[in-house]
Write a structure and sequence with these properties.
This protein is mainly alpha-helical. It has helices at about 5-20, 30-60, 70-95.
């Protein structure tokens, strides 16, 4: 488990700091993009852990145990949050809010 911690920290910093400050340079969104980034990343992390655990339990173990919350599930959730933020950045780059 200790081998996953450096990967967790790298991806976690990329998600919360990297994407947030990357969108600061947009004229329209500026500093509100950091708050929106934190909100979207936190929501994606939580939903990823719950949904992945739920579907794993529903399909494989028939709800025989609890949903695991360990470093591996958090690393997977970080990658899911990164994918969501990349998609959000692509949509913001192509469209604008009214």
């Amino acid at each position: 488990m200790i081998t996953y911690f450096p990967m967790f920290m790298d991806v976690h910093v990329m998600v919360f700091v990297g994407f947030g400050f990357l969108m600061v340079f947009l004229k329209t969104y500026c500093w509100s993009s950091i708050g929106f980034n934190y909100l979207a990343a936190a929501w994606a992390l939580q939903c990823s852990v719950v949904f992945e655990g739920f579907w794993h339990k529903a399909i494989i173990t028939n709800f025989a145990s609890k949903i695991p919350f360990n470093i591996i599930s958090v690393v997977r959730a970080d990658f899911c949050a990164a994918a969501c933020l990349i998609t959000m950045g692509a949509i913001l780059g192509k469209t604008t809010f009214p």
